[in-house]
Design brief:
Radius of gyration: 23 Å
Distance between the termini: 29 Å
Largest sheet: 8 strands, mixed
Number of helices: 3
Order of helices and strands: EHEEEEEEEEEHH
Length: about 180
């Protein structure tokens, strides 16, 4: 998976009807999802875990902050590692470099479905030219299946005697 940057988009996103997604899905996504609050991921930038914003004016901004050393330190194998905390309010400034193509993506859940959306933003001379829908998929939500897995595992654990569970854990530790 690797490292990635995050981006919030304050522009209208071009959701459209494609194979497997009908107009009612698109209508619900446009009406119910607050796209400005969605944190998209991208690997098109520096992959330094930075947070970007594509603003209404079509420019790309990066979040900056000042840091100060925190009072408590983290102790690791004989070393005191300084901890940092944000000093004041973070701010956005123009991104130092803007790519010509920026692909960003996220997964959005509206029960009982999960939607994978992927967009490509095209920049000309540092300003947004257009946003294209790159991929749009609809899947069954994983929430129900995960809930069933956890429920099944907890039922099985309750059926096993305590000593058998402890012995199994002990054997795993010494393999």
């Amino acid at each position: 998976m690797g490292m990635f940057d995050t981006i919030e988009v304050h522009r209208k996103l071009p959701l459209a009807v494609v194979d497997g997604i009908d107009s009612s899905d698109v209508k619900d996504l446009k009406r119910l999802v607050k796209w400005k609050n969605i944190e998209f991921q991208t690997k098109s930038l520096d992959d330094c875990l930075e947070h970007y914003k594509l603003s209404v004016n079509g420019k790309l901004y990066v979040r900056r902050a000042k840091y100060k050393e925190a009072r408590k330190k983290r102790r690791t194998k004989g070393f005191d590692l300084p901890m940092l905390e944000v000093d004041g309010e973070p701010w956005f400034e123009l991104a130092p470099k803007v790519p010509t193509s920026l692909v960003f993506y996220s997964s959005v859940t509206l029960e009982p479905f999960s939607y994978w959306v992927e967009f490509e933003a095209i920049f000309l001379q540092g300003k947004l030219h257009e946003i294209k829908l790159f991929a749009f998929e609809k899947n069954a939500s994983d929430f129900d299946s995960m809930e069933n897995i956890f429920q099944r595992d907890s039922e099985r654990a309750n059926q096993e005697p305590l000593m058998r569970r402890l012995w199994g854990t002990f054997k795993k530790l010494f393999k």
